[in-house]
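Before any further analysis, we paired sequence with structure tokens, yielding the entry below:
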Amino acid sequence: MWVYIFQGIGLGFAAASQPGPFQAFLISQSLTRGWKRSLPAALAPLVSDGPIILLCVFVLSQLPDWLQRIMYIAGGLFILYLAYGTFKSWQSFEETLAHPESTGHQTVLKAAMTNLLSPGTYLFWTLVSGPILLQGWRETPSNGLAFLAGFYVTLICGLAAIIIVFGVAAKLGPKLNRILLGTSSIALFCFGSYQLWLGLAG
């Protein structure tokens, strides 16, 4: 069992620290709304990943190429929408300093939607974590559950750390805050454009 726990911890750390549209979204939220209001977004994988895991392990590897392209296009368009919202916050930076009100429930749902529409999450569970989970579960369900526990405890702690670090960094000065916000907008735009290109060029 410990082997699967350690594998889950290692992959959870990798998933949290790997740059991607979901991480860029968390950073932009932390910069515009503050880390305390954005912290619930770290729980988004618990909302979105259940269907993703089931889909990847049992279905996604069998999907035809055209359906995979549609998934990339949908994800790319949604990420570009998030990039536009972050860019507007960068433009009206003085207004964003007030941290507009938004409930933690809304934050989690928006973050979960970002994760749900990110093809990287599907690929990760299809090619990396899915086979380990299946192998552990076939040996004994407790091994599969141990892997999931190690993975998600580490992933959520890592995402929470990203939110707090960038939220604290935002308080170091308005110029740094605006630079980081602009950077996250560019990162979201690049991720969205790349996914859109993968869908259209495929």
The chain has ten helices and no strands. The first helix runs from residue 2 to 17. Confidence is low (pLDDT under 50) at residues 95-101. The CA atoms of residues 99 and 185 lie 17 Å apart.
